[in-house]
Please model this.
Amino acid sequence: MILKISALAHTFRSGQHIQFPDLEVHAGEKIAVVGPSGSGKSTLLNLITGVLPLQTGSIQLKEFTYEQLSARDLDIVRADHIGVIFQSLNLIPYLTALDNAQLGLQFSRRRRSQVSDTRTVISELAIQLGLSADLLGQKPSELSIGQQQRVAAIRALIGKPELIIADEPTSALDPHATRLFMDQLSSSIDPETQAVIVVSHNPSIIPLFDRVISIGDEQ
Model:
């Protein structure tokens, strides 16, 4: 088991309350979390990544139980075991694609230990994701949105964190590019050690996943 969520809920200062379904995620699984805007998808992502503190319920990532961790320990667990593909990509504009991709190793000694030759591993991931290795010397502004997205995916995948989370990764892509990217992302995951959760409001991605978790409107 990579991730287990039990009795998880979050209440905002406004009084909005979100109750999330229980969930277990195992190696090799591809899971979509879908729902309309405002339904709590981003809140769930922020709870899983430890950005939002737990109020009610339990999250266990591998052998780590969030409510038993200090804030510092949770930061380490997140850096070691979770790779995130952000909706806004969050690439640093003055760094090359290669340097942006290497940032996935910066805060994790564990992930760095998994990589013997950083450039080789990044080049291999680039090829798996359909990104020509000769583009790794380019800066984000010199790349298309799809190419930037693949750089962000390499940053999340490098060092083999067990859980890959993608936040609306296909929002800027057409249907063909969406399917291509999801197929490439899936083929880049180690089915023995990794799983992927994709958060999206796009119902067309549902057939691409093993399981779908639907989150309704906030109450």
Summary: The first helix runs from residue 41 to 48. Helices lie at 41-48, 71-81, 97-102, 109-113, 118-128, 145-157, 175-187.
